Amino acid sequence: PIWPGGLRNLQTAAMDEISTAVFKATTDDLFEPKEKHVVAVARWSCEPELQEQVASALAKRVSTCGARPVTTAKTLFLLHRVATTGEPEAVLGPSVAELRSLVERRSLPAAELAYAPYIVGLCEWDDCNLFRRPDAPACWRGMPLPAVLEGLRPLQALAEQALELALDASEVTTPAVAALRLAVAEDAFAMFLCETAGAAVLQDGLLAAPLALVNLRPGGLLEALRASNRHAEDALMLQEALGSWRGGSGRLDAVFLASSSHAYQAPLTSVFQ
Q1: Which of 2, 16, 25, 165 gives 20 to 30 Å between its CA and that of 200?
Q2: pTM, whole model, 2 decimals?
């Protein structure tokens, strides 16, 4: 008989190293995504001479994952890691287009379909590989008010989705979905820390800001502050829940620093300049 590991070796025998890593990171088994393969793909996405291969391997995996819930969850997890720690702009375009098509056709398993629109939005966000950095909140605090207000619009929209997904009370059915939910929960914390730093800038400049900017709908200063207050309540609930998942205190700052410890440190660009 051919054991599962042997079958996987046969399936990857004709693949190059990058395709093999993508395949093994998203294997249809009852384990979490294998970290060494996830890290390797994210690292390769930052190497210009390999980016075309990474983009092709990821897009191919997305196009074939829809019928298998575990592979779908692991593929979403892999895209998430590349988006947050790799070089997403160079490699994720074809994968995101394919994933959006699967979402529109509802061609994904139900549990994974809930996460897919968030992953699409995250991958398309200009700052998806910056917000988890430990110095990201400080960068927000150093930005001028108009730049903060502009940057908060996509950040708060994604934070809303991340908090909703992380606080979802439905049962987690596989380790792959659990890993995906935890990654999204860590996103929610990191986004909230950036959002809080940006909101402090808005509060400091509130009385001096033009009235039109204060009352603008959508996307005005007051609207952004209200959203930040809503997210604070959800973040506190999530902090308690995440502490129970991990068996620890779940301190928001500690969770954020832990989540960024494995990250490839991308240079500060985009909204933080």
Answers
A1: 165
A2: 0.85
